[in-house]
Write a structure and sequence with these properties.
With 348 residues, the chain is α/β, with parallel strands linked by helices. It has 16 helices and five strands. The structure holds adenosine-5'-triphosphate, magnesium ion and zinc ion. The site of magnesium ion (MG) has 4 residues, from α3.
């Protein structure tokens, strides 16, 4: 097992171990990468920009890499070296030319003023001073006003990189002064590829099916995928990480149970549907069972055998999911709903 992973589990900051130290280590995000690299190579990085997109896909990572570009001691043609003392200092957040501000935990106007005041001082190590404002949608109204003023008046040696999961909450006055760069979910294929290589490199024994599942469980978030993988490696304790282990971590039902459940639904065996759900381990989330059932039925819709029947069931499942999302006591509703769908099949 990789010592690296275990070392980092103990300090609770697991995914940091894998934060890309170079642009070329970033998974996916082709457009954003192309845009940023081209701007950096041609020395045309806009004064201020906002990186936006879902959680855990590389916003903070890219912001730090842009910052590293200006201080890296061994820059390559289109990338930073990732290993020099400056690159390391950027990753550790210990370099005075790069100021990171987390708007989620520093909400007062004094907090941001303290940072913005630093604009007036020239950079120490390079031509630029880079301000990274993370979770920028959390800035208070006063903080936004202060930032706006700074964006307009900041000297040439200052670059602002805002990062947010909620671009629509960034006021137009700020957005119109920033280049907006979208980041996207990392695709399953890109994740599979990345984790296959990572597991070989780190000597992690893992089934191919588990890698595919990992990519699908993490819903496009690299951070989520790394966190699940780390839990799995710890639990596997040296043996192979398999699909069943991932299911247990995610509090998912096993494939066998889902197959059985879908079989009961399709056969109209509503009593068995109810019994199967009632017998599930109490850690298993019924909402994820519904998702698993839907995924399973969806696959069956592509098979010629009983296609019509499964399509009809899928429509009912979709409706059940939509209804369940509207209420808080969805557990009971899903159980009853699945039983009802089976009952309808039974009555046809
Ligand atoms: N595109 C990516 N390629 C490789 N690793 C990534 C990528 N995106 C995220 N990661 C991994 O996930 C961790 C978190 O990434 P990062 O902090 O950049 O996400 P984020 O988009 O800023 O998320 P949040 O919105 O939650 O702040 C990184 O340390 C890295 O290990
Ligand atoms: Mg972030
Ligand atoms: Zn470097």
């Amino acid at each position: 097992m990789s010592e690296n992973i275990l070392d980092n589990v103990s300090d609770g900051n697991i995914s940091i171990a894998y934060r890309p130290h170079k642009f070329n280590e970033v998974v996916g995000q082709f457009v954003a990468l192309k845009l940023l690299k081209s701007a950096l190579i041609n020395d045309r990085l806009p004064r201020s920009m906002v990186l936006y997109g879902p959680s855990g896909v590389g916003k903070t990572t890219l912001a730090r890499l842009v910052a590293a570009w200006y201080v890296c001691e061994n820059r390559e043609h289109d990338d930073v070296c990732g290993v020099c003392s400056m690159c390391c200092a950027v990753q550790d957040g210990t370099i005075s030319d790069i100021l990171e501000f987390d708007a989620a935990s520093n909400t007062s106007i004094e907090d941001i003023r303290e940072i913005l005041d630093q604009c007036d001082y020239a950079p120490q190590y390079s031509s630029q001073k880079v301000f990274i404002i993370d979770e920028a949608h959390m800035l208070s109204r006063n903080a936004i006003a202060a930032l706006l003023k700074t964006l307009e008046e900041a000297p040439n040696h200052v670059r602002f990189i805002l990062a947010t999961t909620e671009i629509e909450k960034i006021p137009d006055a700020i957005r119109s002064r920033c280049l907006s760069i979208a980041l996207h979910d990392v695709s399953r294929l890109q994740m599979c590829d990345y984790f296959k290589h990572l597991c070989i490199e780190k000597n992690i024994k893992i089934e191919d099916g588990a890698i595919t599942l990992l990519a699908s469980l993490s819903n496009g978030s690299m951070r989520e995928a790394i966190s699940i993988l780390n839990q799995a490696v710890l639990l596997a304790n040296g043996s192979v990480v398999d699909v069943a282990l991932l299911h247990s971590i995610m509090s998912y039902a096993s494939n066998e149970i889902i197959d059985q459940l879908v079989g009961f639904i399709a056969d109209g065996k509503f009593v068995q549907v109810f019994e199967t759900i009632s017998a599930l381990d109490e850690n298993i989330s019924i909402l994820s069972v519904l998702d698993q059932v839907m995924e399973n039925v969806q696959k069956k819709c592509h098979e010629p055998l009983n296609k019509e029947k499964y399509l009809k069931i899928l429509i009912d499942l979709n409706r059940l999911k939509q209804d369940a999302a509207k209420i808080s006591a969805f557990d009971a509703m899903i159980t009853v709903g699945l039983t009802e769908i089976a009952y309808q099949v039974h009555s046809v």
